[in-house]
Specification:
single chain, mainly alpha, 3-stranded antiparallel sheet, about 60% helix
Length: about 160
């Protein structure tokens, strides 16, 4: 890996860092979500921790994909295609620009944050991504990272069986 040209190595290193970050924050989100479900109804701190970790997971995952798109020159999705990748992007943007979502009146009246959790997954006023879809994206990017590393002679990362 150290023999790669500096720019290519930087893309690879940062892609791997974002991939690891996505897995790490997903694990944190799951732990906090379980804590929230098991907590009394009036305890909101675990909800906030879970939501924050899911937002960080989405950010890390999308930023990793962005690095791949920039390095390869390929697009992850076509505008308005409704794909899982586009919905990931929309949730990322809505979370990143929460002040604009609030100021622009783009939150549903019952919402308190630009992104929220439901029984099925994560939503904003513009997109929804199920927990299953998020997990599939994580597993896909993890497999891609392992293949990329193995072609470069690196050792694949340990992917926990209990993601």
């Amino acid at each position: 890996i150290t023999s790669l040209p500096a720019k290519r190595r930087a893309y690879l290193f940062n892609f791997m860092r974002r991939t690891e970050g996505a897995f790490s924050t997903y694990r944190d989100a799951r732990i906090a979500l379980i804590e929230y479900v098991e907590s009394p109804r009036n305890v909101v701190s675990p909800y906030f921790k879970a939501l924050l970790s899911f937002e960080l997971c989405i950010a890390q995952l999308y930023q990793g994909c962005e690095l791949l798109m920039t390095a390869s020159g390929e697009k992850l999705f076509k505008r308005n295609d409704g794909s899982v990748a586009e919905r990931l992007y929309t949730l990322y943007i809505d979370s990143k620009h929460s002040e604009q979502m609030i100021a622009g009146g783009k939150l549903p009246t019952e919402a308190t944050a630009p992104i929220w959790m439901t029984n099925q997954g994560l939503e904003s006023s513009r997109a929804a991504l199920s927990f299953v879809e998020l997990l599939e994206l994580l597993l896909d990017i993890g497999r891609f990272a392992d293949r990329l590393l193995s072609t470069l002679g690196g050792k694949p990362a340990d992917t926990p069986a209990n993601v």
